[in-house]
Each structure stands twice: as C-alpha cells, then as structure tokens.
Amino acid sequence: MTEPKAPADSYISAGGVRVHYLDWGNPDAQTMVLLHGIQDCARSWDFFAERLRDDYRVLALDNRGHGDSEWAGACRYGFSDYVSDLKCLIDELGLQKIVLIGHSAGARYAFSYAANRPEAIESLVIVDIDPDAVNPRSGDMFARYAEESDEWGSMDDVVERLRDRQPDSTDDMLLHQAEWMTRPLGDGRRIWKRDPAMLPAYERPDLWDDLKRLSCPTLIVRGRQSELLNHEVAVRMREAVPGSRLAELEGAGHWVYQELPEAFEITIRWFLENARR
Question: With 182 labelled, which of 33, 149, 172, 217 sits at a CA distance of 20 to 30 A?
Fold first, then answer.
C-alpha cells in the first residue's frame, strides 16, 4: 500500500476554537467532506482521500479536541459543538452541494447537520453507526477508553492496540493510523493525540427523528463483522430514510473504510454515480 501524498493544512475558528482541516486540492471539483469518529483524526481518512482526490475536492475535519485541532475544555465537547464545527467549515468556505461522509460519531454529526441544512448536502454516507441514544457496544468502547492509559511504550504497542480493534487492516494501514493518532513523548513512547476531557463529556442523543428527516440521497455502510451497528438496526435505518441504500461489506468491522479500503471506495463510487441519475 503506497503512502498517501500529504494534503494541505488549514484552520477555521469555530466558536472561538481553532479547528484544523485537511485539503487535498482540486478546488474546481465538487467538495467531499470527511468526518472521523471518537479518538480518530482527519488523517484517518488519508488512504481513502488519496483515491478520491482526482475527482473531488476532499476535505477532512479534525473534530475539536482531536488531531491538530485545539482542545476546547470539557464544557465544550457537547454534541451541538461538534455539529457546529462542521457548520462553521461549510459556511466559512462557502461550500454548496457537498458529498458528506462520516464514520461512527462523525456520521452522527453528519446526518444531524444534513437533516437541518438539506440545501447544503447533495449526498450523504453514514458509515457504521446507529441513531440510538444507548448502544451497549459503544458503552463498552468508552469504558475501555476510560480505563486504558493515554501513554504507550512504543509505536509497536499502539499498532497492536489498533490491530485489536480492526484486525483485518493491513500493517501499513495500522502503522499509518498509529503515527497520526499519537504524538511522540521521547524515548520511543507515544501518547494519544486527543483531549482526554472529551471522553466523559461525549453526548449521544437519540437521532431517529433527524434520520427520518433526511431528504438527500443517502447510503448506509456497515461492516458485516461490526458489533456496533448490527444488521437489524441498519435495515431499520434504511427503511426510515426514503430511497436510501444499505451496503454491508463482508470481512470488516466498525472501521470498514480502513479494513476494506478498496471495497469501500468501490461502494462509495457506485453510490455517488447512481445518486446523480
């Protein structure tokens, strides 16, 4: 797997918080905005963005408190704060009719925004997340995050931690994620590149009403081995959004876009080509 070319770093101010985003160029093309999940970062999308940069202007946002965005403080990590970051990016750059793709928590922010600002979104992709207020598997993930140390003894330790969550990713993919999701402390040690205060502040509102109000072409993508979005809920989501499509990819779990990058790309391209017809 070839290492992706580096995108340009840019920043916006979102309610006084300095928020970082990546821009892969191609400014005359339609804009595609990518949103990551909890503890990930904009660079989590690198391999996918590299594949799409010739056809779209690909932007990836670092959620506040993640990646190279500013830490905001525990009282400013509410659900509406993350949605506001997306709104600020779209408004400041004057983006219109965008393709919006979100993974996990990022998908929740994406479809909540799309439900309330339908004029800004041409197509929406929801990657492996549900609209429910309570998800036992999500609760288990947060319990683990709270219990584990922020520091790791080596890059290999980080890679093995990521391999545990996404066992079907390649070594190259895992190493790339490990490098960008952490920063060096010295003596080979690494630390998560996110504000630990955002974990206890995380909010998970019920979003079924938002989902039902979606009016743009919508694709729901699920990894068949995912324990976070199960098949039954994914089908209910498809039924709740008129005209939406559901794709379940065999051989991947929750991090489907990293575990099956080629199949994920093909699926997204298929959806976008059909959405224009």
Answer: 33
